[in-house]
């Protein structure tokens, strides 16, 4: 009997790849549960999803069954060994509940697949906030031509200093793009990035880095230890008039401290693609004409989304064929995690 794979989402761009990657080695099922209660009921012994060994999920599935929190993880069939999350950020899945469950569940994400799209989103926010393009466009659409005094708040990017918090795939790609202006690139991560080009200057002390930044771009994952990481202290360490760009997760920044810094002029602007309570946006942010706000557009294009779908599906295929997907998330690293290869493949 072929192992069962449950697709908990609508595959939009890689429909043919589902069969190419998984059709010959698994029984593919599609979630048809209209809500969380019916999903959990179908996961019980003897239910429709009983016997599933791998799950594909993406954030859209939360509309029907909610996030993969501790309750849902513990309610999955005991046969589940792998969850392939479509997305680089995987905070909608309680990875610690996956690890602590009696029969451990492994979790993969899609790093790399989102780098270009998210970095170009950050670049747009960088350009828009520095040059005040969003404000100018809104003025033009209101038939008012240029806003008075816009030149007093706008800056060129050339030779300004861009500080990147987290030089992973997305941060590295943004550094490459911003270098073309050229901007000076400085960064802080848990340790120096081995692949960082020579023009990226590493700072061990994050506050020393912030003191030199004209723009801070945030690229760290959301975890318990990163919630509110960009605090009031860090924001106030930035130069007066500095700009913050966030394409990571809204909760990484202390939103109240950020808004207060906009109100008193310590921050010159912010460019946001993410918010703490999406899709809800703090209405106070709408009061600042000088900020640029996007509705989480980071990966909203068909090219990137297809790559992401294929990469998540490939993690499931690798798990079925070898017992391990290539994109196991960092919480499992260093544990010598091993999944017994399914004997019937």
UniProtKB/TrEMBL annotation:
Q: Which GO terms describe its cellular component?
A: cytosol
Q: Which UniProt keywords apply?
A: NAD, Oxidoreductase
Sorted alphabetically, which SUPFAM superfamilies does this protein's record hold?
A: Formate/glycerate dehydrogenase catalytic domain-like, NAD(P)-binding Rossmann-fold domains
The signal peptide, as residue positions, is none
Pfam families the UniProt entry points to:
2-Hacid_dh (PF00389), 2-Hacid_dh_C (PF02826)
Question: This protein's superkingdom?
Answer: Eukaryota
All copies of the D-isomer specific 2-hydroxyacid dehydrogenase NAD-binding domain together span 124-298
Q: Does the keyword Chloroplast apply?
A: no
Q: Which PROSITE patterns match?
A: D_2_HYDROXYACID_DH_1, D_2_HYDROXYACID_DH_2, D_2_HYDROXYACID_DH_3
Q: Which stretches make up the D-isomer specific 2-hydroxyacid dehydrogenase catalytic domain? A: 15-323
- What is stated as this protein's family in its record? Belongs to the D-isomer specific 2-hydroxyacid dehydrogenase family.
- For this entry, the protein name equals D-isomer specific 2-hydroxyacid dehydrogenase NAD-binding domain-containing protein
The root-end lineage is: Eukaryota, Fungi, Dikarya, Basidiomycota, Agaricomycotina
């Amino acid at each position: 009997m072929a192992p069962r794979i449950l697709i908990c989402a609508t595959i939009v761009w890689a429909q043919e790849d589902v069969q190419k990657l998984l059709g010959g080695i698994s029984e593919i099922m599609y979630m048809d549960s209209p809500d969380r209660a019916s999903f959990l009921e179908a996961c019980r012994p003897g239910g429709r999803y009983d016997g599933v060994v791998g799950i594909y999920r993406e954030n859209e599935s939360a509309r029907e069954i909610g996030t993969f929190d501790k309750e849902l993880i513990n309610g999955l069939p005991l046969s589940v060994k792998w969850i392939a999350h479509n997305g680089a950020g995987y905070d909608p899945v309680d990875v610690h509940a996956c690890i602590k469950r009696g029969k451990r569940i492994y979790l993969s994400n899609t790093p790399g697949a989102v780098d270009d799209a998210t970095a170009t989103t950050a670049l747009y926010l960088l350009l828009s906030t520095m040059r005040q393009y969003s404000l100018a466009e809104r003025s033009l659409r209101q038939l008012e031509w240029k806003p008075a005094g816009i030149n007093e708040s706008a800056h060129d990017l050339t030779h300004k200093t861009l500080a990147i918090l987290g030089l992973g795939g997305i941060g590295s790609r943004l550094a490459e793009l911003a270098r073309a202006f050229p901007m000076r690139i400085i960064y802080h991560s848990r340790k120096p990035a081995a692949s960082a080009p020579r023009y990226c200057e590493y700072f061990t002390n994050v506050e020393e880095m912030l003191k030199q930044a004209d723009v801070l771009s945030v690229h760290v994952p959301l975890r318990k230890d990163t919630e509110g990481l960009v605090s009031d202290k860090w924001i106030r360490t930035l130069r007066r008039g500095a700009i913050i760009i966030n394409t990571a997760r809204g909760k990484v920044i202390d939103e109240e401290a950020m808004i207060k810094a906009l109100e008193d002029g310590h921050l010159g602007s912010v460019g946001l693609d993410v918010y703490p309570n999406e899709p809800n946006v703090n209405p106070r942010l709408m009061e600042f004409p000088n900020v640029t706000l996007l509705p989480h557009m980071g990966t909203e294009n068909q090219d990137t989304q297809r790559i992401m779908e294929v990469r998540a599906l490939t993690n499931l295929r690798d798990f079925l064929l070898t017992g391990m997907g290539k994109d196991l998330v960092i919480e499992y690293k260093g544990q010598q995690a091993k999944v017994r290869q399914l004997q019937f493949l």
